[in-house]
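Researcher: Next sequence.
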Amino acid sequence: MLFDFKLSTPSQGLIDITGEVQAAITESGVNEGFCIVFCPHTTAAVTINENADPDVKSDFVMGLDKAFPRS
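Model: Next structure:
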C-alpha cells in the first residue's frame, strides 16, 4: 500500500512530519507491519528523532551549519 503526500517546506531547517505519517498509517487501516518513509529529493533527508529534548533539533542544525557553512 502506498500513500503519497507533499509538503511545503522552508528553504532550510527541520520540519516534523509525524502527524502526516500517523495520518497516512491510520487512513491505510493497517494494524501491523512496517512504515517506510522515503524522500526522493537530493537536497533533503529524513531523520528520526524522539523530540523529547528541543536542544537536539538546534544541535543538529548547528552541526550541519558547522560541517557545511553557507557561503
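Model: Residues 18-67 form one domain. Residues 53 and 59 are 10 Å apart (CA to CA).
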